């Protein structure tokens, strides 16, 4: 392993709308189950992930409530909790965020999700066109940030009106929990330049990511700010490249052409997200064009909204691809894999050593120093070697 950069900060994902072993199939599917989410969070905490992303949406468990439940069952894990401006007032979200940061002892991260589906946003009572949603979000976070940093805010804006708003109890983190955000449109990047601590991109080919980072850096610098950068990717890591590609093929082996067509129609018709359009353009719904860059596989995006690409390969191969992103300025990886519990173990055990990450926290001694190998777990224990 050659480590040219500080190790990535690696977070995992809580699949709060459900999980499974095959895309586009009910075979070995796992429904949304709070007990299962707790298993994933506890595993991620023990395996050395710095945090977990909890998504937002009509099909997902409510992000703040789920994070509060998981925070009570973990020790060091941070929670990147999705917040959608417009579904509640900035004052209410400030109270939610401050309380969650306090009860978790400073383990809250905030992920702004303005939303890309007009249909879903209408269900939440949000009827603004694409670019105007970011004007609304700017006013929202002006009030939110003032409240959570100083305890008070007033704004008589076009979208947000808050007169002498107050927050009684401050968060643990100062001046506030960090704010993450991802968006590919010009309006989104302009918004990011004024409010965001960590700008996120979905897993596009490196040249596209480089272009996006350069744009975001320029916009932030014009506002006198700096942002750091993260990437959202799925991972399919196995001991060899061949095994990893076999696992990728298996993941979509029960996915029918009819299901792909239905998913692509839904993703195209119901979204005005520039980022989603960029994801779809990587494969155009075709099974024969899925490796869109070396080891970057777009098969997940045949049916999944949002992040639709995975890095596929051995630890050495995936580590090399991740270092290419690091060279562009990426310092954070928000990762996932199917199913999420088992893949959390695979990534920690196989990939973390290649990335220079320590892996499982609080590892106990397995012997008094003798050389041993795994003996199958029988009553005789491990096999001691001379």
UniProtKB/TrEMBL annotation:
Name of the encoding gene: ssuD
NCBIfam families (alphabetical): alk_sulf_monoox (TIGR03565), PRK00719.1 (NF001939)
E.C. number(s) listed in UniProt: 1.14.14.5
Segments forming domain Luciferase-like: 13-331
Database matches in SUPFAM superfamilies: Bacterial luciferase-like (SSF51679)
The organism's place on the tree of life at top rank: Bacteria
Pfam families in the cross-refs: Bac_luciferase (PF00296)
The entry's keywords: Flavoprotein, FMN, Monooxygenase, Oxidoreductase
Family: Belongs to the SsuD family.
Protein name, as recorded: alkanesulfonate monooxygenase
Molecular-function annotations in GO: monooxygenase activity
């Amino acid at each position: 392993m050659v480590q040219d950069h500080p190790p990535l900060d690696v977070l995992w994902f809580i699949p709060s709308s459900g999980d499974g072993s095959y895309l586009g199939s009910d075979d070995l599917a796992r429904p949304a189950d709070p007990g299962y989410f707790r298993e994933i969070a506890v595993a991620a905490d023990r395996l050395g992930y710095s945090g977990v992303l909890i998504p937002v949406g009509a099909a997902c468990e409510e992000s703040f409530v789920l994070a509060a439940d998981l925070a009570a069952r973990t020790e060091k894990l941070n929670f990147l909790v999705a917040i959608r401006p417009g579904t509640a007032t900035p004052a209410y979200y400030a109270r939610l965020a401050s309380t969650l940061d306090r009860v978790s002892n400073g383990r809250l991260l905030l992920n702004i999700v303005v939303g890309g589906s007009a249909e879903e946003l209408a269900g939440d009572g949000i009827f603004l066109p694409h670019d105007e949603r970011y004007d609304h979000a700017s006013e929202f976070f002006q009030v939110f940030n003032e409240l959570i940093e100083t305890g008070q805010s007033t704004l008589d804006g076009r979208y947000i009106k808050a007169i002498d708003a107050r927050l009684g109890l401050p968060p643990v983190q100062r001046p506030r929990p960090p704010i993450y955000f991802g968006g590919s449109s010009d309006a989104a990047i302009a918004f990011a330049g004024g409010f965001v601590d960590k700008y996120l991109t979905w897993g596009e080919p490196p040249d596209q990511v480089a272009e996006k980072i350069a744009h975001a850096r320029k916009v932030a610098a014009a506002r006198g700010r700096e942002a750091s950068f993260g990437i959202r990717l799925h991972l399919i890591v196995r001991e060899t490249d061949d095994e990893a590609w076999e696992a990728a093929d298996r993941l979509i082996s029960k996915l029918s052409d009819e299901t792909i067509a239905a998913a692509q129609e839904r993703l195209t018709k119901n979204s005005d997200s520039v980022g989603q359009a960029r994801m779809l353009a990587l494969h155009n719904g075709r099974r024969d064009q899925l490796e869109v860059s070396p080891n970057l596989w777009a098969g997940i995006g045949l049916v999944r909204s949002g992040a639709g690409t995975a890095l596929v390969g051995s630890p050495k191969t995936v580590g090399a691809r991740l270092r290419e992103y690091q060279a562009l300025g990426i310092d954070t990886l928000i990762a996932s894999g199917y199913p999420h519990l088992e893949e959390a173990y695979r990534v920690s055990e196989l990939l973390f050593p290649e990335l220079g990450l320590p892996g499982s926290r609080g590892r106990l001694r397995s012997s008094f120093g003798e050389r041993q190998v795994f003996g199958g777990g029988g009553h005789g224990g491990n096999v001691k070697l001379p």
